[in-house]
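Continuing from the previous page of notes. For each protein in this section, the sequence appears first, followed by its structure tokens. Read the first protein now.
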Amino acid sequence: MSNDEIFAAAYREHYWAVSRYVARRLDGRTSEVEEVVAEVFTVAWRRRGDLPDAPLPWLYGVARNCLANAVRGYGRRRRLVDRLGNDDAAHGRHIAAGPDAERPGAWVHDALARLSPADQEVLRLAAWEELGVEEIAVVLGCGRRAASMRLHRARHRLKAEIDRLRPALTTGTTATKEQHHG
């Protein structure tokens, strides 16, 4: 199979997975998703000779770099808008959340948001993208042991944040365990 055919197969097979990967990381900025995904596959096309046999983790790694560029660009645009005074908040258009606005499991997202970007990414790769440690290592550009350790530490820190945010939840499970053993 030629490099062009390998690229075409990777594109057909993994376009939607890469799109979901990007969309989940551009929470609330869906207008940028197509742009970033296009950049991912542009890079993949240019480097089609480098596509590995299992290209999805490699494509996620490319997407990760493209997202970093997009986020930097978004930050620059946001600062420009703020300097120009064209912000919605400056014009009094505020959106207030209703009393039932908290979605189920929002506290997990809150706990995740308190972690470092590196911890968030390794957890998302495992949970959202359902990657194993070997594949996570490819995406992050590190060895298997390093990826395993990063995942372990990130899970530990997430659990600590969840425990901190929801002390009643963890106290309730402790009380339940004590009732069964008591």
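Done with the first. The second protein uses the same format. Note its length before scrolling.
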Amino acid sequence: MGRAGVSVERLVTAAAEMADEVGFENVTLSALARGFGVKDASLYSHVRNLKELRTRLALFAGGEMIDRIAAAVAGRAGKDALAAFAGAYREYAHRHPGRYAATQIRIDQTLVADSPAMRRTAGITYGMLRAYGLDEPDLTDAVRLLRSTFHGYCALEATGGFGAPRDVDASWDKAVDALHTALTHWPREER
């Protein structure tokens, strides 16, 4: 990368690429500055600190991920939408491990509320779950179930945590089937 043209957008894109290459936890302002051929201090005119950069990266990656999920679930409902959602989630985690790791950090809720990507994520996820007849607070509980199942599976898979000879794709499909069953027979919150 050349010295000219450093911007917040280019910085975040470079951070995303770096995260996929060396891991999210290894993204630093110093390494990015070297890549741009500038001194570390010059990046502080674009981001306040590493935390801000990582937050921007998380929002960027979250936007990419939900775009892929939205394309996968478009025109689908019920189990078909759930399977498409799950598949796109898992594929993003596989293809972009550093970016995916960024999507798992805790972000200040005021930034989440102001993020079009995060609002879109909520809209698509909740929309898919409403096809199962869920309303609040059951929607929030169901989102937490899906996220913890998908993330747990992807995290274990990424570290080689599944040692049994059973094919991991077959187990994934079974997990999605089980989630569909759980959502179909959801224990409704008494009002």
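What the second structure shows: Residues 1 and 61 are 21 Å apart (CA to CA). The two ends are 58 Å apart (CA to CA). We return to this in next week's lecture.
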